[in-house]
Amino acid sequence: HHLKYLLKNSTISHFENTNTPNSYLRLKKYGADPSLSGENITVISFSETNEELIAINIVNSWKSSPPHNKNMLSEYKKSAVSCGQGVFNEFGPEYKCMFSNMVFYSE
After folding, report:
1. pLDDT class for 90, splitting at 50, 70, 90?
2. Which long-range contacts (CB under 8 A, 24 or more apart) does 85-92 make?
3. pLDDT, tens digit, for every residue of 9-26?
C-alpha cells in the first residue's frame, strides 16, 4: 500500500495525502489492531542488479540511522517489508532506484 504511494509520487515520506496518512491507520485498514507501530522507509540508487547487494545497502541505510535501527531492534512482534524499483526525482530520472518500506507492529 504505502510502497505504491511512494513509487507513484516519487517521494520518500512516512505520511500519505490519503485517508490512511500514517502506518498505524494503514495497518488498521488491512485488519491489524496495533497497540504499537513503527516504520522504516528508504530509497537507494543502484547500478548493479545483484539483489543481495541491494538488500544489504537497504538494511545498512537503516542500521546507520539511529531511529531506524531502533525500530529494527525493538520488541515489535510482527513486521512486513516491501520493495519496488522506480524513479526518485531528487536523484534524477537516469538513476535506477529501489524504494523500501518496512512496517513493525505489536497487537
Report:
1. confident
2. 86/6, 86/7, 86/10, 87/10, 88/10, 88/12, 88/43, 88/45, 89/10, 91/43, 91/45
3. 998 999 999 899 999 999
